[in-house]
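Look over this entry.
=====
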Amino acid sequence: MQRFSCLALGLFAILSAAVAVQATENGPREVLPDTVVPLHYDLQISPDAAALRFRGKVAITVMVKVPVQDITVNADGLIFADASLDQTQLALTPPDVKLGRETLHASTPVTAGQHVLTIDYSGPVTRNTLGFFAMDYQGPDGPRRTLATNFEPTGARKFLPCWDEPARKATFTISVDEPRDQMAVSNMPVDQVAPLSNGLQRVRFRQSPKMSTYLLFLSLGDYERVKQTVDGVEVGAVVKRGDTGKAAYALDQAGKILHYYNSYFGVRFPLPKLDLIAAPGEISGGSMENWGAIFYSQQHLLFDPKTSTESDRQLVFEVIAHEMSHQWFGDLVTMAWWDNLWLNEGFARWMQTYAADDLHPEWKTGLRALSIFEGGKQADSIPSTHPVVQSILTADQAAQAFDQITYDKGAAVITMINAYVGRDVFEKGVQAYMRAHAYGNTVDSDLWGEIQKAAGKPILQIEHDLTRQEGVPLIRGAFGKGAVVLSEGRFAADPTTIANAASQNWLLPISVQSLAGGPAVTSLLKGPVHFSMAPPALINAGQKTYGRVLYPAGAVTALSSAFPELGATDQYGLLNDAAALGFAGYQPAGDMLTMMASLPASADPIVWQRALTLLAEIDSHYSEGADKSAFRAFALKLLHPLSARLGRSAKAGEDGNIQTLRVALNRLEGRFGDLGVIAWARGNVNDVAVNPADRRAALDIVAANANAAAFDALLEKARAERDPLDKQHIFEALAEVQDPALAKRMVEVAFGSEPPAGMTPSLLESLSENHPDVTWDGAIAHLKDPKTPIENTLRWELVVGIASGSTLPARISAIQDYEMTVPEPARRPFLGAIAAIKQNQHIREKAVPEITAWIAARKT
C-alpha cells in the first residue's frame, strides 16, 4: 500500500481541517494531515454514570514535523472546553460533524519538534455498544450499571480527541475516577490508586506499549476477577459479581491458548497481563480484541456447567481463540489501513479453527469450519461482493468492512495456502513476519512475501488473484477416457448478474482423486489442466480450494453412489456445492437431496448438521400449502433413521458433537411438526434435572411452537430472570417463534428495555430468518428513528439482513428508498439485499418445483 503524506505548503505549512489525501483509484481517503503525529496520550476520565456523561482531560505529546498553525484531531460528539499547546491557548473552531474532526488554531506557527497538546472536554455515555457506553442489568440486590468502551474501527474519537487511524500508533496512560466499591479495568495493570472525596478513588494504569487507538479499553463496574499466571503473564477473567464460577472454563482455556500462541507466533505475549472481560449483555461486533483487555459479549466468555451446552463450550473456546490471536495479528502487528483488515480478521477466523484442532482434536473444528468458508462463498457470489483487499475511504466504509468477505473468504484463502505449503512452512513464515513487524503496521504482501520465501512457491500470485479479484471461482470438470480436465469460470448465485462480465481466472492449488482409488493429485490451476486418471473423480478432494465445483452431467449418480464411503470433509463440500449450484440453476436442485439421501445415519455428526441446515433452508423457501407439507413429511422420513440412532435425550459420556447434533435434530423435527418431539420438549423444558443441552433444546422447541399463552408465560419467565445470561437464552428462544402474530409482538419486545443490553440486533436477526416481512414491517420505523440506540452502520446492516429473506417485489422498492438515505460510499451492501430477494424469488419459482418433483418421483 502507498503511504500517504501531506504536501508542505512552503516553510510554514498552514493546514486546514480539509481531508488529507491519499491517492487511490476510487478517490481520496479520509485521513488526518501527516504534519502532526501523536507520541503519547495521558488521559484522565471522570464519568458520571447516573447522568450518562463524562469529563475528560488529555495531554498528548505530539511531534510536529513541519511548522503549522492548525492541528486537526478526530473527535465525534465531544464538546471541547479548552485547548492549549505547551500551555499557550489555542482557538477552537466549529467541529466538522460529518468527518468527526475538530481543528485547533494557533495564533502563530508552531515550530517543528515535540510539543504537548492539552484538551479539556466532555461527552455522552451512550446506550449504543460502540464508543463509551452503559450496560444495565439486575444484580442480586438491585440494578447495576457497567460502563465500557468498544472502539473498532473509529469509535475512539467518541471517547477522546485523538488520531483515530490504525497507523497512528502511540503509547497511553489512563486514569479514571470511579466509586470505591467498583473495579476499573484497562489495557495495563493498575499502577496507583488514590482516594478522592465523595466515595470516589482515582485509578491510574501503567503506560501501554505503542498501539492503535481502536485497541484502547476502559471499563468500570461491579466486577470480580480471578486469575492465573501462564508463561510469566497474569491471565485474568473479569466478570460481574457472582459469576466467577462461570469464568473457570474460559480462564483455563485462555491459559492453554496463550501458551500455544507464544509457541506458534515465535514472539511471546509482550504485556504483563491479559484480562478477559465479560459484558453483562452483547456488544457490537460480538467481542473485541483490546490489547491486554479483551471485551466479550457474555455468551462468548461465560460457561455455566449447570446450564451451558456442548455447543456453548466450543463457542467460548473459539471466540477466546479468535480474540487472543488478535493480540499478535492486529495488536502487535497492525494493518496499515482498513483495506487490509483481513490481515486481522481473516487470520483470526482461521486461527480459531487451527488452535481448536490442535488443542481439542475431538471437536473436529476444521470440519465444522467449512460452514465458515461457505458463508464467504455465499457473500462472494452476489453483486454486493468486493475484493478481500478493498478500497476504504470513509469511517462508514471501515465499519462495513467487517463482513463475510473479510472474515470468511479471508479464512478460506488462508486455509488453502496453509494446506498448500504445509503447516511447518506456514508457521515459519508467520514467525518471520512477527519478528520483522512487531509494533508496526503492514500490508498483505508483507505477510505473504514471508510465506513465499519460506515455501519457495508462488504464494504472492495465488494470494493476489484471490484478494484483488471479487467472485467465487467456478471449477468445471470434464471426464474423458483416462483423463479429468478442469477449467475455470466464475460462479454467481444469479448467473444473469455476471452474464456480461469479463472472463476471470485464478491461480489455485487443487487436488483431484479418482473414485476408483489411488492417491489425490495436486496441481496449480489457471486455465485448463489435465489430470491423467480414470474418471469419475472427486474434484477438490479435501475441500481446501476456494471455489465451487461443477461436475459434468450425470456425474451425480457416481458421486452419490460413492458418497457413503467418502471422507466427512468431502461429503460436506459436495453438499455445499450441490445446494449452491442447484439454487442458482447450474444443475438440478434435486441433486442435493440425492446426495443427502445417500448419507448414512452413522455419518459424521457435523456433516449431518449441515444436512439439517440445508433442509431448514429449503423449507424456508416454500409457501404454506400442500407442497410444503409434503416436503416436511419427506424430511421427517429422511431423518427417522438418524433420530432412531440418536434418541431424544443426551447420554452420559457420549461424544460432544453427537450431543450438538441431537439438539439440532430435535429442534428441526419440532419445527417440521413432529408431535412426539414437541411433547418431549414440553415435558422437559422446566426439568432442572435433565441435561442442559436437552433443556435448552426443549426451551427452543416450546418457544418455536408457542401459542399466545405459552409465549406470555415464557416472556414472564424472561422478565423475572435476573441473570443476564439465562435471560438471554429465553429471549433467544422467543425469537424463534413460528406464529407470525407472536413474531410481530416479539419485534417490539426486541426494541424494548427487557432483553439484556445490546441484544436488539441479534433478536431481530433471528426473527427475520423465519419472518422477514413481519420483522421488516415492525422494525423499519425504529431503524429510521435516530433515537433508537443502534449505530448507523449496524442499522444499515440490519436493514440489509432483514430484507434479504423476503420474496416481495415491494421490498426491493423499500430497500432502494432506504438506500437513498445512506451516504453514497456506504450503499454497496444494499445491492446484496436486492440480489437476495431476487434469488429468493428464483428459488421459489424454479428450484422449489424441482425439489417438489424430485420428492414426488421418489414416492413412485
